[in-house]
């Protein structure tokens, strides 16, 4: 599909260079992989296109900076000295360096500029701001202290300025429970169980390193509603966590028994097959006795959280009541769903991390599907409902990334997603749908700069990020790390000034 | 063997130069890339070069988002003939982990950055994934994995 789109663009853009009276002005909200891949493809497809990328943070790159776990192994290929994370960052930096592209950090959609402002100023607005909230479990006790979403915990150890004060208490307990078995669940479990010396040379936030150094957590449970056949993690990440030195991994052999429906799922799914094989191997090979002081990782299957149990003080969590589940086939979808059996057990713990999915946040004036947590769209074109409840296309408004597809996939998934959205934009451009009705061109970047000036809003250009980057790397060198992250809003903006 | 003899007939050189040219040919293999429209591009790939690198050098639109560091699956290619697929070394776990996530995976799918030119691969044909939707090549219909 990618080749079809690229071929089509070549034809379209060749035609356009001579026809367009003014360049297409595009504004992308969000500078993570979704935003940057969209910008890259937009700039490549149209010789004259101008692309502005906004982000509410002073720093770009989204989850590449704040989501990727700091301890992921360096590439094993000796001829590539950089980690793949750095490769992606370099690629995005080249996009930002394009003279037709400008980065505007510290600009918030909603408080600094409104969506309608942007639509007035740009021919096309692409929303790529991802998913900054969480799916809620909706069980009693969910608001107790000591219960966090995995997103908050990840942002905390990655130094995101919104979560630098989360301060999870890692000293009140020896057990943490992670609800969910996707790749993010594995990430947080791994960070909790890594020997501290292995974290010291990473770019993990200093405040997290300090907490983890003093942490008394020695046991982590990864709890899933369904079985190993349905586990959401992928082979690479599972292999990584199973390979941690001196870690006792517990998987019940009974949980590996498969039903006919399970076998069907395994037959159809290569990913599930390889994950299941890893679980099977791990269950048989880790049979040794507990070594005193050894850290433990328990994979618990067929359990769903019924409620969180408070401690004596009443404020913090002291355990999770889990209900045993069994799988029933959901006739409509053919999928197997977990159904409670009425058997309960309590699991003592002092820290709970909910890793059950991210959720996007709606914005004023933007159609939003509350249930799925995404913006309704057709190949990236935003859809809204007219008075007769028919879906109509919102002219000039597009989505890409998690806001479009939901919070799934890897970084590279956004590449294909961006291709699709950009193809829609180009098609609409070709069909004259993005030409302003008034006839005069939209102000684009100049308009945005004016709005920002009027509001006395201080934006951070890409060169501002480069100052932050230089400072972080210099501080990191002193500590034998790739960088020492700056983790508060004040200090980030201060570094831009310096 | 026949190909080299044929080509040396075409080249109006003295024997010495023809021999030089044919020994140069031993250092490169011929690879055909087939895009989703069935359009073919025949290129020469020096020994030791990956198919991803070769594609880029010849303006073939093969993405390589992670630049060959086994962190994505965007350089996914389909080896069109089982005979050539079998000449490749088995993929390592790391490559299989990334192939898991490739779009339109087939039984003869590989990552372009991991397929390295060697003499036995001379004449290999590689399809870019979208190409498998519409047609069968050489009687081989790639099955979705």
UniProtKB/TrEMBL annotation, chain A:
UniProt keywords, alphabetically: Electron transport, FAD, Flavoprotein, Mitochondrion, NADP, Oxidoreductase, Transit peptide, Transport
Cofactor(s) this protein requires: FAD
Catalytic activity: 2 reduced [adrenodoxin] + NADP(+) + H(+) = 2 oxidized [adrenodoxin] + NADPH
Record localization: Mitochondrion
Domain of life from the UniProt record: Eukaryota
Top EC group: oxidoreductase
EC number(s) on file: 1.18.1.6
Record carries keyword Oxidoreductase: yes
Residue positions binding FAD: 34, 63, 109, 402, 409-411
FAD/NAD(P)-binding domain location: 25-194
A Pfam family of this chain: Pyr_redox_2
Coiled-coil regions, chain positions: none
Predominant location category: mitochondrion
This protein's GO CC annotations: mitochondrion
UniProt-annotated binding residues for NADP(+): 181-184, 225-226, 237, 409
GO MF terms, alphabetically ordered: oxidoreductase activity
Tagged with keyword Transferase: no
Gene3D superfamilies the record matches: FAD/NAD(P)-binding domain, NAD(P)-binding Rossmann-like Domain
Entries under PANTHER family matching the protein: GLUTAMATE SYNTHASE 1 [NADH], CHLOROPLASTIC-LIKE
Family according to the record: Belongs to the ferredoxin--NADP reductase type 1 family.
Official protein name in the record: NADPH:adrenodoxin oxidoreductase, mitochondrial
From TrEMBL, chain B:
Reported cofactor(s): [2Fe-2S] cluster
SUPFAM superfamilies for the chain: 2Fe-2S ferredoxin-like (SSF54292)
GO terms assigned for molecular function: 2 iron, 2 sulfur cluster binding; electron transfer activity; metal ion binding
GO cellular component: mitochondrion
Record-linked Gene3D superfamilies: 3.10.20.30
Statement: the UniProt record of this protein carries the keyword Methyltransferase: no
Domain 2Fe-2S ferredoxin-type as annotated: residue spans: 29-132
GO biological process: P450-containing electron transport chain
Family annotation (InterPro entries): 2Fe-2S_ferredoxin-like_sf, 2Fe-2S_ferredoxin-type, Adrenodoxin-like, Adrenodoxin_Fe-S_BS, Beta-grasp_dom_sf
Keywords: 2Fe-2S, Iron, Iron-sulfur, Metal-binding
Superkingdom of origin: Eukaryota
PANTHER family in the record: 2FE-2S FERREDOXIN-TYPE DOMAIN-CONTAINING PROTEIN, FERREDOXIN/ADRENODOXIN
Protein's UniProt name: Adrenodoxin-like protein 2, mitochondrial isoform X3
């Amino acid at each position: 599909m990618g080749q079809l789109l690229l071929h089509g663009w070549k034809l379209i853009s060749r035609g356009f260079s001579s026809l367009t009276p003014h360049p297409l002005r595009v504004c992308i909200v969000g500078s993570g992989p979704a935003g940057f891949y969209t910008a890259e493809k937009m700039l490549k497809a149209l010789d004259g296109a101008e692309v502005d990328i906004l982000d509410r943070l002073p720093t770009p790159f989204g989850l590449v900076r704040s989501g990727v776990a700091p301890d992921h192994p360096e590439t094993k290929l000796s001829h590539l000295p950089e980690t793949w994370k750095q490769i992606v960052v370099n690629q995005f930096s080249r996009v930002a360096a394009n003279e037709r592209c400008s980065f505007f950090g510290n600009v918030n959609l909603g408080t600094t500029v409104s969506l309608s402002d942007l639509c007035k100023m740009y021919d096309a607005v692409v929303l790529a701001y991802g998913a900054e909230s969480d799916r809620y479990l909706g069980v009693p006790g969910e608001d107790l202290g000591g219960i966090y979403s995995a997103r908050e915990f990840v942002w905390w150890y990655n130094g995101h300025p919104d979560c630098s004060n989360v301060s999870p208490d890692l000293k009140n307990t020896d057990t943490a429970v992670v609800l969910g078995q996707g790749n993010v669940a594995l990430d947080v479990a791994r960070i909790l169980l890594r020997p501290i010396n292995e974290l010291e040379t990473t770019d993990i936030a200093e405040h997290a390193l300090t907490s983890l150094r003093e942490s008394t957590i020695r046991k982590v449970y990864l709890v899933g509603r369904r079985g190993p056949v349905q586990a959401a993690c992928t082979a690479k990440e599972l292999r990584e966590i199973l390979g941690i030195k001196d870690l006792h991994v517990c998987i019940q052999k009974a949980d590996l028994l498969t039903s006919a429906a399970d076998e069907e799922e395994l037959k159809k799914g290569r990913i599930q097959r390889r994950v299941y094989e890893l679980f099977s191997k791990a269950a048989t090979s880790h049979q040794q006795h507990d070594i005193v002081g050894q850290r433990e990782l328990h994979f618990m299957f067929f359990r769903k959280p019924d409620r969180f149990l408070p401690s004596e003080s009443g404020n913090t969590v002291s355990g999770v009541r889990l209900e045993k589940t069994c799988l029933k086939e959901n006739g409509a979808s053919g999928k197997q769903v977990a159904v409670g059996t009425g058997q309960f057990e309590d699991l003592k713990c002092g820290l709970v991390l909910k890793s059950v999915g991210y959720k996007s946040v709606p914005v004023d004036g933007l159609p939003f599907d509350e249930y799925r947590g995404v913006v309704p769209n057709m190949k990236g074109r935003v859809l809204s409902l007219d008075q007769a409840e028919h879906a109509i296309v919102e002219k000039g408004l597009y989505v890409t990334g998690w806001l479009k597809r939901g919070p799934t996939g890897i970084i590279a998934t956004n590449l294909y997603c961006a291709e699709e959205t950009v193809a829609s934009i180009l098609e609409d451009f070709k069909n004259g749908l993005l030409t302003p009705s008034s006839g005069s061109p939209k102000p684009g970047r100049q308009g945005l700069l004016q709005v920002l000036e009027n509001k006395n809003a201080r934006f951070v250009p890409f060169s501002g990020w480069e100052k932050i980057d230089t400072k972080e790397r210099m501080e990191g060198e002193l500590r034998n790390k790739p960088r020492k992250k700056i983790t508060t809003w004040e200090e980030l903006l201060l570094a831009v000034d310096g | 063997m026949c190909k080299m003899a044929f080509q040396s007939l075409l080249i109006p050189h003295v024997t010495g130069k023809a021999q030089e040219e044919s020994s140069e040919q031993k250092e490169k293999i011929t690879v055909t890339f087939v895009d989703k429209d069935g359009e073919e591009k025949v290129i020469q790939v020096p020994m030791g070069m990956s198919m991803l690198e070769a594609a880029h050098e010849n303006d073939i639109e093969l993405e390589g988002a992670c630049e060959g560091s086994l962190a994505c699956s965007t350089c996914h290619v389909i080896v069109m003939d089982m005979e050539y697929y079998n000449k490749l070394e088995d993929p390592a776990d790391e490559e299989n982990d990334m192939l898991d996530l490739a779009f339109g995976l087939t039984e003869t799918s590989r990552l372009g950055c991991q397929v390295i030119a060697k003499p036995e691969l001379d004449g290999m044909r590689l399809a870019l994934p979208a190409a498998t939707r519409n047609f069968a090549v050489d009687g081989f219909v790639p099955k979705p994995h």
